[in-house]
Design goal:
metalloprotease, binds zinc ion, protease, 36% helix, Collagenase (Catalytic Domain), hydrolase
Length: 261
């Protein structure tokens, strides 16, 4: 092979290499673009849907309605029963479980949630992820063991029903508390018209109600998951919800969710 042929060959190899690199870069951008598009379309879908109305009640053992803060006693294990599980498709039940068990986070553009034009904020998809994050911050090493059970004496009972709420609510959480010790003993979540809810809405409403289960009250900010009427384009557990929960479980003595925009 003379020098000219060698040069031609190495030039050819370089061309191929450059084409491969360009191809990979374009492919990477395309993947990123698709991922962003997907997030945006989920958010737009949420923004267009009718607001989900919710309510929550805290009762002491005598049945009086209470209006102050309550928290679960320190524990490493919590059991949940889903009543009516067998009446719904598996995907709908998976949506319920995802809102509770997921440890994934999602980044959402601040401008979509009216927090200015810059940057993104982190949101948690499931309460297990949020609670484990808080436990870690508090120096608790082991993660919370959340399990689903058929037992009637579960700590949390989620009832899915096709019946309509008298007040047009999608979900209600009712917590039984010991008002002398400010502790939550058990929580009962009811989801109405569960057959009519899309899987996405089921997930969102469970995520909101489970916020009440943890002891959180409603948020002051319309763009927050814990606002009484769920209308946020980012229906996930926000840093504001996390801060409120951390405050409640570190002696804050308040269940309020105050979000600054
Ligand atoms: Zn609520």
């Amino acid at each position: 092979m003379d020098d000219y042929t060698k040069l031609k060959k190495s030039l050819r190899n370089m061309q191929i290499l450059i084409i491969i690199v360009i191809g990979l870069v374009v492919f990477g951008f395309a993947l990123d673009f698709l991922a962003v598009q997907k997030t945006v379309s989920v958010i737009e879908e949420n923004a267009q849907t009718k607001p989900l109305k919710t309510s929550y009640v805290v009762q002491n053992l005598k049945g009086d309605a209470m209006e102050t803060w309550y928290a679960w006693q320190p524990r490493d294990k919590i059991e949940i029963q889903i009543v009516g599980e067998n009446n719904y498709p598996k995907e709908k039940i998976d949506a319920v479980k995802r809102a509770i068990l997921s440890t994934e986070t999602i980044e959402i553009d601040n401008k979509l949630v009216y927090k200015g034009d810059e940057g993104t904020s982190t949101y948690w998809i499931g309460w297990k992820g949020a609670v484990d994050y808080i436990r870690e911050k508090r120096g608790i090493e082991n993660s919370l063991d959340i399990s689903f059970t058929d037992k009637d004496d579960a700590d949390i009972i989620i009832t899915l029903t096709n019946s309509k709420s008298g007040e047009g609510l999608s979900g209600v959480t009712n917590s039984m508390v010991n008002d002398e010790e400010s502790t939550i003993l058990r929580s009962f979540v009811t989801i109405y018209e569960a057959d009519k809810l899309s899987n996405e809405h089921m997930e969102i409403i469970i995520r909101h109600e489970f916020g009440h289960v943890t002891g959180l009250a409603h948020s002051t900010a319309p763009e927050d998951l814990m606002y009484p009427v769920i209308q946020t384009p980012a229906p996930y557990i926000s840093e504001c919800d996390i801060d409120a929960l951390l405050h409640l479980y570190t002696g804050g003595k308040t269940s309020q969710v105050i979000c600054e925009s």
